[in-house]
Design brief:
Elements (H helix, E strand, L loop, with lengths): L1 H8 L9 H23 L5 H23 L6 E3 L7 H25 L3 H21 L4 E3 L4 H34 L1
Antiparallel strand pairs: 1-2
Helix pairs in contact: 2-4, 3-4, 3-6, 5-6
């Protein structure tokens, strides 16, 4: 049993339970509350849009972390280790997709200028990442620079806006065909 713990479980656990783990727990709870609000109390996105946006961002965060945080690039480490750990599961599966879903809620609700939306949301996501880096040591940047995050989030938010617009068009066309 100790052998299983040492080989399988121990490498996934935090080295020390400190501010970065508390940060992950706090932002996970906050994002879950935000997701609850936009899906139950103030839903303007269709369930198909919510699921589509969530799956897109689950894929983007998984691929992004895989390519950017692993060799050969190895730009940064998350939480305490240079490989995945338990808290990464919450970040990749709840926090990242949930935060973008929350932002896309406001895209559908109020956005008239897509470029301004993409730039502002990219700056917000970069600012939140900077707070998590400098105050809670959630990431350890190796060769990653803050402005890379802005560029990355511009790509992510552009992808989300394009995905949403195409997805919405497909759904609208199907609804129109079915109502004839």
């Amino acid at each position: 049993m100790k052998e299983i713990y040492d080989k399988a479980i121990q490498p996934m656990l935090p080295k020390t339970f400190d501010e970065n783990e508390w940060c992950v727990i706090a932002i996970t709870i906050l994002v879950i509350i935000c997701i609850y609000y936009i899906t139950q109390k103030s839903r303007i996105l269709l369930w198909t849009e919510i699921i589509g946006i969530s799956l897109l961002n689950l894929q983007l965060t998984t691929l992004g972390d895989y390519f950017l945080a692993m060799p050969p690039y190895d730009f940064y480490d998350t939480v305490d280790r240079n490989s995945g750990e338990l808290m990464d599961i919450f970040l990749q599966n709840i926090v990242y997709p949930g935060m973008v879903l929350f932002i896309m809620h406001f895209y559908k609700k109020r956005t008239t200028n897509k470029v301004v939306f993409i730039l502002i949301s990219s700056l917000i996501l970069s600012a939140l990442e900077s707070i998590s880096v400098y105050f809670f040591h959630l990431f350890t940047f190796k060769s990653w620079e803050n402005y890379y995050s802005i560029i990355f989030y511009i790509f992510v938010m552009t992808s989300n806006v394009v995905f949403y617009e195409v997805f919405k068009s497909i759904i609208s066309n199907r609804i129109a065909r079915n109502s004839m």
